[in-house]
Design a protein that fits this description.
Two copies of one chain form a homodimer.
Chain A: H1 3-16, E1 21-23, H2 25-41, H3 47-57, E2 59-61, E3 65-67, E4 75-78, E5 89-91, H4 96-107, H5 110-117, E6 123-130, H6 134-146, E7 155-161, E8 164-171, H7 176-189, E9 194-196, H8 202-213, E10 217-221, H9 227-232, E11 242-247, H10 251-256, H11 262-268, H12 273-287, E12 291-297, E13 312-319, E14 324-330, H13 335-355
Parallel strand pairs in A: 10-11, 10-12
Antiparallel strand pairs in A: 1-2, 3-4, 4-5, 6-8, 6-9, 7-8, 12-13, 13-14
Helix pairs in contact in A: 2-3, 6-7, 8-13
Chain lengths: ~375, ~375
């Protein structure tokens, strides 16, 4: 959100609670000091423009609690009009790196503490499954009900996110037994695809497994174009177990850099189980890793054939000790969907190789 | 959105316009045929669960226009209660690959055509700039006004998105001269940072420049971990000009795979202009490309020093013919911000090397 929209939000909330906007001099001065950094980086910046922008950010509704800016926009807690009951409105800046820490700060203010003190506390649990359609979870809810579990006492939300089904449940602490029975039903019916019951995502599970084993990983990707390496290195500290990767987009890179035998490509095509396995082996040997990931597929929109349609992706995950998992998946959707989903499948196959269970349905 | 939320939306809109929900038999049958694909992929699926889910999707408010499902959820155009004036509500499924084509279909229905026929048509223009703070644009708006340009006749929105400033302007066709004068003011004041005036993004400009020159590109990335290669290969047809990349996360991969002289790392550190340049050169020589991109930096949260803080990233873009651009940037924010912004800077430096102008502020 630009300053224009931020200003507008504060103004609208101020109007709603009938509180005139006023300049907070101290806040203006504090924001100005934050802007020092901008002035150093852009020495030719128009200082009047910056001052005007600064002043707008420092206009706040009278009687509002100001949350210190993380960037240059303050947060606001705007109480209802004096003498009235009604909701307080919390206004926070939109960029996640400002929003998230400021929300944490907001929770510690006496204003929000007072509101939260009146609220019921809920338990929150999340189960994650990979490789089943959402309708299977809907059926599990019906089965749980048929088994006499009072699932109406739970607030259950299911969400299909990047190919994974998330089952989020909120419940009052008194309903812990009901939740336990529900979770047991999910475990019994979906043992093969349930991969997380503690909020962890597959990325963290792969990272933890590599750290625990003291092993390293490397990739040789074609259709995903670097997305798997990017995702593996997304976590802080990943340099401890990620050696790196090869983006083998052109066939010459597959052979010259990743070490794939050209005869394999000639015999089976670039998108094949054999080439995926050779890419995984190349990732291990060329980058000196313990675990190698090979991916080759057709992300489209062109390049599909009847035998090898757009969306077909071959995966191989290999360990230096000889263990190997290979798998093909035909992923629906457009180019971005196919690349993104393939990245998730790759991580689940790595998880399967390292942990031996869950997250990928059997054949 | 899961089926639960979709159903809820249709129900809420039906209640709002006082239209009871009814099963559309023909729609149910059409969705069932779409689900054939799911049934083939998961032969053990619970067919009753799928039927029940299907039937829910086929419940629609009476009198609503049904838009054919792209996935399994239909769209709806729900008119106001019979005999009343009021807004029609268009309900579309959330996933972008269903939403976008269905919106195109919705626009062609007689219901929406009738509404759109009563609307004013607006012109829409977008300018994109890179390397300036948003406050500079706010000042340009003030300058335009001071020059007598009636910018209140234009609806101007500025947005900072992934480090780029977007200036989006909507105006009635009769105000074309006012817009032309405004755009001229932006061009005059921001010649060095304006890089797009036709809606194109830097990714497309780089792709077009490579195609036009018949040249290829390759990457050797450290801190961005494959994000630059992933972004270059995000566009359909990128296999025509992307050779591939090396994710040189570990220093041994920088030397053994990307061909960086270990003496450079010993003398200058892995995060240095010299190593960035050697990575770019390695991308060209090892992957057989015309243009090489080298990136090395400190994405954090650990690994920063006083001399080389978290956020410091060195870039080099080199051409086989000897032209080279190098640049260091210290990027604020967290690990994800740093990696993402570095990817954008890299693309702008490639653009600068290929096109010679704009998009990166001068030193």
């Amino acid at each position: 959100m630009g300053p224009t929209e931020d200003d507008l939000t504060a103004q609208v909330v101020a109007d709603f609670h009938r509180r005139p906007m006023a300049l907070d001099d101290a806040l203006e001065e504090r924001i100005w000091r934050v802007l020092e950094n901008v002035r150093v980086r852009w020495p030719n910046i128009d200082e009047d423009a910056l001052r005007a922008s600064n002043r707008k950010q420092a206009m706040v509704p009278q009687g509002a609690t100001v949350l210190e800016p993380i960037g240059t926009a303050p947060g606001l807690i705007v109480p209802p009009p004096d003498g009235e009951n009604g909701p307080s409105v919390v206004v926070l800046p939109g960029p996640p790196r400002e929003l998230q820490p400021m929300w944490t700060n907001a929770l510690e203010t006496p204003e929000l503490q007072a509101i939260l003190g009146r609220a019921t506390e809920y338990e929150l649990r999340m189960l994650r499954l990979f490789g089943i359609p959402e309708s299977e979870i809907a059926e599990t809810l019906r089965a749980a009900r048929a088994d006499g579990i009072d699932i109406d006492a739970l607030e259950i939300t299911t969400c299909l996110r990047r190919g994974e089904v998330e089952v989020v449940t909120r419940y009052e602490p008194s309903q812990a037994d009901v939740y336990a029975a529900f979770e047991e039903t999910v475990r019994a019916r979906h043992a093969g695809t349930l991969f997380s019951d503690d909020g962890s995502v597959v990325d963290e599970q792969v990272a933890d497994a590599l750290r625990a084993a003291g092993e390293t990983i490397a990739t040789a990707e074609s259709c995903t174009g670097g997305l798997v390496a990017a995702r593996l290195t997304d976590l802080p500290g990943s340099s401890a177990y990620v050696r790196g990767g090869i983006v083998a987009y052109d066939n010459a890179v597959k052979t010259d850099v990743a070490g794939v035998d050209p005869a394999l490509i000639a015999a089976h095509g670039a998108v094949s189980e054999e080439v995926a396995a050779a890419l995984a082996a190349g990732a291990i040997s060329r980058l000196g890793a313990d675990v190698g990931v090979g991916i080759t597929g057709i992300a489209g929109p062109d390049g599909g054939t009847e035998e090898k349609p757009v969306g077909l992706v071959w995966f191989a995950v290999a360990h230096r000790d000889g263990r190997t998992v290979t798998r093909d998946v035909t992923i629906p959707g457009g180019r971005a969907d196919i690349r993104d989903r393939a990245t998730t499948v790759a991580l689940h196959l790595v998880r399967r190789l390292l942990l031996g269970t869950g997250g990928i349905p059997g054949r």
